[in-house]
Amino acid sequence: MPTSKSEYIVTASQSYISRSANILVAPNLHSKGKSVIQKNVTVHGEFGAPIHIGRYVYIDEDVEIVPSVIPRSSDPLMAISNTDRSATGMLLPPTENETAIPVIIGSHTKIGNNCTIQSISIGSCVRIGSNCRISPRSKIHDCCIIENDTVIPPDMVIPPFSRVRGNPARIVGTLPECSGGEFVEDCVQKYTGFVRDLGE
Predict the structure, then answer these.
(1) Which of 7, 17, 26, 70 is most buried (most C-beta within 10 Å)?
(2) Whole-angstrom Cα distance, residue 80 to residue 102?
(3) How far, CA to CA in Å, does 191 sit from each of 35, 135, 159?
(4) Is the Cα torsion angle 38, 42, 45, 51 positive or negative in sign?
(5) What are the CA-CA distances from residue 22 to residues 5, 52, 129, 197 (Å)?
(6) DSSP codes of every residue in 163-200
C-alpha cells in the first residue's frame, strides 16, 4: 500500500507513477489518466514505439512492458533472425533492420506483480495475475482473466471472456458477460481507494 504522495509523480491526467518506476523515453508513454504505475515498473519507451494505457489501469510492482520487435523486411531470413532474438530472452531495442510495434493496454485492466508484457494489445477489463509472461506479438481481447504464473506464447490470440492458465497457456473456461461491468467497478474502486490512502 502507498505510504506517501511524495513517492509518486502525479500527472495532469491524475495518474500516479512511482518515483522508483523506470519510464524510459517518457514521451512514448501515453496514459488516458487515473491509472497507477507502481515501483520498479519498467516501460521500454526507448524502443521507439508508443505505449498507450487506458483509464483506471493498475500496474503492480516489478512489471516490465516491452514492445514487440519485428523485421522491417518481408525477407524470410530476417524473420528467422527475429525468432532467434526472441529465443535468447534478451530484451533488446530494434536494430536498423527491425521496428517495434506499439503496445496498447485498454481501460480498467490490472496487471499483477512480476510480469513481463510483450503483447501488442491487451484489451479493456483484463485481469493478469502475478508472475505471468505475455510473449511477443500476442493479443488479449477484452474481459479476460490470465491466472498467476501463466506463459502466453508468441502470436497467441486470446478471445474475449476467456479464462487462461498454464505454461504454455491454454483456455480453461469462459467468463459471464457481466464480468466487464464488475471489472470496471473494481478498477474504479481500487483507484479511489489508492488515492484515499495517500490522503488526497
Answers:
(1) 17
(2) 21
(3) 7, 27, 27
(4) negative
(5) 18, 16, 21, 23
(6) EEETTTTEEEEE--TTHHHHHHHHHHHHHHHHHHHTT-
Query: Of 198, 184, 196, 200, nearest to 58 (Cα)?
Result: 184
Q: What is the pTM of this model?
A: 0.90
Q: Which three three-digit cell numbers place residue 20?
A: 522508483
Alpha helix locations (H) across 16-168? 76-87
From CA 34, how far away is CA 191, in angstroms rounded? 7
At 187, the amino acid letter reads: C
pLDDT, tens digit only, all 200 positions of the chain: 556 889 999 999 999 999 999 999 999 999 999 999 999 999 999 999 999 999 999 999 999 999 999 888 765 555 544 444 555 456 788 888 889 999 999 999 999 999 999 999 999 999 999 999 999 999 999 999 999 999 999 999 999 999 999 999 999 999 998 888 999 999 999 999 999 998 76
Classify residue 153 by its DSSP letter: P
Count of all residues that appear for the chain in the document: 200
